Amino acid sequence: MTQPAPHTRLAALRARFDAIGVDGLLVPRADAFLGEYVPASAERLAWLTGFTGSAGLALVLKDRAFLFIDGRYTTQARQEVDAGLWEFRHLIDQPPASVLKAEAPAARIGYDPWLHPESALDRLAQAGVTLVPLAANPLDAIWTDRPAPPAAPAIPHPIAFAGEEAAAKRAQAAASLGAAGQGAAVLADAHSVAWLLNIRGSDLAHTPLALAVAILDATGAVDLFLDPARADASLRDHLGNAVALHPPGSLRDHLAGLAGRRVRLDPDVTPAWFGQALREAGATPEAGEDPCRLPRARKNAVEQDGARAAHRRDAVALARFLAWFAQAAPGGGLTEMSAAARLLALRAEGAHFVAESFPAISGAGEHGAIIHYRATPATDRAIRPDEAYLIDSGAQYRDGTTDVTRTLWTGPGDPPAELCERYTRVLQGHLALSALRFPEGIAGPHLDALARRPLWLAGLDYDHGTGHGVGSFLAVHEGPAGISRAAKPVPLAPGMVLSNEPGFYLPGAYGIRIENLLLVQPAPSLTGQVKPFLRFETLTLAPYDRRLVALPLLAPAERAQVDAYHARVLAEIGPLLDDGDRAWLAAACAPLA
User: What Gene Ontology cellular component terms go with this record (predicted)?
Assistant: First the structure.
């Protein structure tokens, strides 16, 4: 069947409003598992609007349409979306509730209860509109060539990488339910299901998930809702007798079996459909944090060692790439896509490599200012001599997940003073965060300003968080902790892995970002210390571009910190390289002049 042209899709969607009794529709960038990345079958927002970013929401009214995006996608959205059809709003500064209150008071706004958590609906309800749950998503009726949902097999995640048996995890999570007097919990976050049961999959391109839902009983037993055809004998043996496998279509019947019981739902990561179904069944849903979320973020000793090993292999690939780039870039001939492909090929040579952890952000010149830019055949451009190039990339290894950003000068000439000054301020914020000691109980939002201070002193800033959590062969963006003013104040704890990535972006000119991953560790005690303190262990091992450092801006302690880091990179990674790449790394890691 022929699809509606992009400019007629809005009209086709609006034509269904009267029949379903609504004045508007919410279209989030989400699937039924509410993860950051979604399969092609759930890319409704991209199909409707053309926007391909990883976070956003559309509000379609009968005569107006709004696209909400955050600061990462301000430039990208305007390049991808027809401004004649869509009005752009900032997701944080101009949230959907405020727009609804101003533009559609008393309207009936439809939503798909599989695609919104209850916490988001509660915020929208403050606008005074009537939110209408829909039995079927009207967009699906006009998306006639919608791809099929993923159906790859789920696979065991070996104890050698997981570090803890699933039975122990189930017992720990179940104990938290018993302590709260709750009989069960709905685990709608597929990352939690993967962690709890030590399973992985390939349903998403960059996150090794088998998209599935589970019900955890307070006894420790689990009902797993996954197509039985996706579970072979090895997976069934791995799951054991305490985990019962059911087809997803039986989920409502199993929820009905919880009638009369108190059931925990995490309102931030559970589709509203579950609460509605449980109430209809006579169960009592209770808001509470997913019992797997915080334990999942606190990596065990095996996962921490795996992260170190994965980052060393990643560092070898990075060093080989950076040495190649330093030689090739000044002469021209590279493109954004060819450079990213080179780095991916080098990573793929490493042990336990599975995939990129996200589509590489390979941005030259003005494209570097697009915070989540993704080069395509239509946008791919040459990496020219004497400009800034930003490469943000990572990998999924079976023992760890990586994410690293470096901003490079292509040469052969010297970079302009303004670029160096701004790069150095970003570097100073990055260094300040990585060197920090802080008391237990401190949360990410408390630390965000430290990375911004050098930029603030010059009247500069960046419109994204400073750091996000990272999973262990799971999501490259993992909650609940983050280093951001918008993050929930979750205290940082030993075993958490977070990114450290301040930046600066000048639209139309260049982008700067420097990113390492940090592992939270107990800090050695000091004489007279009055409480336990924590510190960060840097996992990422790749040199900074010394050509972009404005040495007069660095304090002696900052110079010493860079030199110590570079000495560590050379000592740990140099022996793993061939003679040519090792010589380049030695020069890149030499003490700052």
Answer: cytoplasm
